[in-house]
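Final paragraph of the annual report: two paired records, presented back to back.
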Amino acid sequence: MSQHEHAGQGGDIEKLWEMVKDIKFAMFTTRHRENGHLHSRPMTTQNRKHDEGDAVYFFMPSDSDPVHDLQSDAQVNLAYSDGDDTWVSVSGTAELVDDVAMKRQLWNKPTEAWMPEGPESPHVALVRVRISHADYWDVTSNKLVQLYTMAKTAITGHPPKNPGDTGHVRMH
């Protein structure tokens, strides 16, 4: 497995955005404000391109558990997977963004289905997660090669030599 470590923005953040741009949902993990347990829930990433830089945006009800949780502990994790060959784990700091213009810019029909009050509503929270760092795994071989590699590993007991690309992106 080839492994890369990147620092700062540039090709690294573009690689990250390229990997997650077509993945509709992230598992948004917060630390529960009362018991300290980690809670994950699927959330839709609102921005889909790297021109937003090191931030990922989500809409959620302003009185929801994740909003209350991140107000107690702003450290969150976002887990992305296409269910097949791409996995990305993003760690960052979440904050509420009180910017109606930004809400309007990111607003879309699927969001409206969940939150019919619209982007101007005080019941709709816009959450920005500033990416601190991310780890990714990107399997580049086709399914037949993957199956062969898994079978060979099971028979020989030796881990695969180069199943794909993995890396670490540090933003700050």
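The closing record of the year follows.
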Amino acid sequence: MQVVLVEPEIPPNTGSVARLCAATLTPLHLIEPLGFKIDDKHLKRAGLDYWEFVDLRVHQSWNHFIETVAPKNLWFFSKHATKSYTAVRYTEEDFLVFGRETRGLPQEILETNAARALRIPMMGTGVRSLNLSNAVSIVLYESLRQLGKT
């Protein structure tokens, strides 16, 4: 299981995801461009003292990630997807892919991978989206639960 953040913009969100990945021994991939510098004080603060425990990999672009990592099982998370994140069976080889806080995943990635797009249902009509680090937490722990790791 691995987490991928495509062009994250907000340092505290990425720091919180990094801490989650350290706590669950889950590799974290960041796809550039990032909305901050890796040494940003807010990013480090959100991750507290856990950065040394994060298996962090930074990729210069989505294409670079695909070419160098060659992931086979990708799940893409979007509020525009129709299938719930609980409707699939996760595997150890899965990559959980999340987009930017303000715009989500790039349209071309979603269109190319529509059959592998999942959503986290929201019942409130007045809420546009969930916080990125909350969304990653929800999905990552569900996948770990299915794998018998929680």
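The mean pLDDT is 92. This concludes the annual technical report; the extension proposal builds directly on these records.
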